[in-house]
Amino acid sequence: LAKAKGRASYCFYEPSQADSAYAELVLESQLVQAIERNEFVLYFQPQVSAATGELVGAEALLRWRHPQRGLLGPDVFIDVAERHRLMLDLGAWVMRAAAEQARVWHQSGIAPVRIAVNLSRMEFRLDGFAELVAEVLRDLGVPGAWLELELTERMLMDEIASAPATLAALRAQGLTVSVDDFGTGYTSLAHLTRLPLDKLKIDQSFVAPLPNDQGAAAIVRAVIQMAAGLGLQVSAEGVRTAAQRDLLLEWGCDGLQGEMIGEPMSAQAFEHWLAQR
Ligand code: C2E
Ligand code: MG
Ligand code: MG
Ligand code: MG
């Protein structure tokens, strides 16, 4: 096709494919060094009780202080890390950093909250993942109750054979297990009732159209009721307005997270935010 259209069109798209392959190669090699050079940092987004507004936890969100490009969010590098199997090292770093921060905050009494960690598919697939977590906690002297793990529906369904035992082993250590981005995946409802879970986090795409979108409202209310029926906690992500907060509270949502409460912040900014409340 390129040939038929002549040289100009050949040059038009060929370099862009090469560019993106090259860009990924560069990113990959920078990612390897980034761990060694300590360029990663965790940001923390507050999670509050819908009923009381009290701080109940913080979600750890990974950031990369890229030497040239500045602060990068996970969307820029998580997929590349997964494709090149760097995600296990990165995930282990996240787990440790989150547990360390939990310990610092508990010891200083600044923010004695549970820190939620996002897992990658690679980590959850790992044989002996629950033991690995136990090892980190033991190493750092951190009780499991100070951490929460967030998994997606996709991760649970992909590992449906081993997931019940892994989740049970994690919960036996006191960890809270949550399903992230709930409603966007394909969880079989039959499986949902059988998996040992603690919490559903309603995806922000259902929260964002509230309060005016009837379809979104129906879904959010249904998930809250289902969670109650299954004895699970439920929280909402991406809460941006007081109207959204009020509706979620009225419908019985337990927890809230989003810009309206607080954006993801560095640990220091989080402490400052907490002191100002
Ligand atoms: P997530 O776990 O669903 O995290 C919520 C995302 O929504 C975060 O984006 C957060 O900054 C953003 N957010 C929070 N409140 C609002 C709001 O009110 N409005 C809007 N529009 N967005 C809001 P972020 O930090 O860019 O993270 C994106 C995703 O990357 C996360 O989605 C999570 O799946 C993944 N991720 C983040 N940190 C890690 C990590 O340490 N390990 C792994 N495996 N994945 C991570
Ligand atoms: Mg999450
Ligand atoms: Mg989410
Ligand atoms: Mg997500």
TrEMBL record:
Domain EAL: 24-277
Protein name in the entry: EAL domain-containing protein
Residues of the full protein shown: 412 to 688 of 688
